[in-house]
Amino acid sequence: MVLCYCGRFAIVRTSKTDTNPGRRFYCCAEQGSNCGFFMWFDPPMCARSTELIPGLLKSKMRADLLEHELRTGLGSSTRNQADFEKLEQEISKKNTQIKYLLVIIAFLCLMLLF
Question: Which residues contact residue 15 at a Cβ distance below 8 angstroms, ignoring those fewer than 6 apart?
């Protein structure tokens, strides 16, 4: 464990800068502290890693966003499917009622003819 300048245990965070993407570092655990403690947790990255990692992080963020959209879309799709099935049942019920009424109308027409 690493202690910061104010005597607290330092926490590990991940850099999101273009110069050190994904590189972890120690900093003071107190949010907004003026302690100023900073120490790298990971060794420096090679130049190639520094070039590749930002693109990989963006790709991961896009994939996570698409996954989230897909999951929320599936939820609404399930609701839409339930609504669709309910409407199908209502249509089937109405069709049965129409057939019943047509039989009654046909019977009444036959009675009027005789």
Answer: 21, 22, 23, 24, 25
